[in-house]
User: Fold this.
Amino acid sequence: MNYNIKVKELDEGTNYPLIVLSGMTGLGQKTIQELAEQGNFSMISENGQQVVKGKEFLDWAKSVDNQIEVEKNDYHLMDVEDR
Assistant:
């Protein structure tokens, strides 16, 4: 399933903590870490937090047309007994 990465609010001059970048883009923190490990952009340690440089992330996002293939999860509803 393709996911359109939200980049409208990102700034090239800002370093984003992982949790902030996750919230702003809609990507999971694990997904962002995996993308960094694959060499798409770097993560650095800043003030004790893992951060991603906005410019590197935006350059990568632009190179993939702001889209990424993500797993589709089918969550089944749980049956709950009526009382």
User: Anything to note?
Assistant: The two ends are 39 Å apart (CA to CA). Strands lie at 2-4, 15-17, 43-46, 49-53, 67-69.
